[in-house]
Write a structure and sequence with these properties.
The chain is mainly β and 266 residues long. The chain has one domain. The chain is 11% helix and 62% strand. It contains 2 helices and 12 strands. It has a 10-stranded antiparallel barrel. It starts with a helix and ends with a helix.
Length: 266
Amino acid sequence: MKKYLFLITLSFLVEACHTHSFLPPTQNTPLFTNKEQAIFSGAITYRSLEINGAYTPIKHFAVMGSLQVSNAVVPELGIGTYSSIYKNKIVGEIYGGIALCNLYYKKEDEKIKSIIGSPNGHYNFDITMKGYRVFLQPNLGFRISDKINIAMSTKACLWYFTQYEYYRETWDYLNASGSHSKLADKDSTYLKNVGAVTIEPAITLKTGGKYGKFMVQTGVNLNITNNEKLPVPYHNIGMFIRLGFNVAVDFNDFKKKKSSTNQNLN
């Protein structure tokens, strides 16, 4: 129980360090082995709620979708392929797709909390980001047993913004009362019709039963095109942690049970 409380606390602390820009999405790692399988998962953090799903109607082809609700509502759709590398114990996948990325956030005097919880400054934000991203995501998964799956994935995203405006001020309090303050830092970027690239390697652990598993995913997000002339989609500490629950549905199992029942009746 203590390790779960530690993970929950750590994920909330990491997410609390993200500013009000886009958040790295939870990466979908279904690890399919046969047609007519489906995976549904949900993840929650301090700043976001996510729902993911994937389905393989025919062998070696899958569709996926997700919805992230955080500072913005980001829907994502993708398709891909998968293949067993070794007896359904090692699975390789690759997915590609697109997500709409529109965000608007404006707030003044948002308090900065210190470690002990007392205010020691404040932010001013004015953010507008309009555009989309396309992604390519290879997965390498290890189906150790029905109870444990591990996946390594890397999400490479190409972003395109028709409008990118980011302005932030950080003010420090000079005394405990907060009656006097000074401008400590500011960051501003105003761009149109520009692109950016992010790379997001991650590792996902799923543990539990055959059809339901707890999920922990952690990774880093790297702004490859980080300079003054290009947009920065993620303004954060460069690390993310996701906690969630994964549900698997294998329609082949239902067919086998139905066939076995019919044979017994006959």
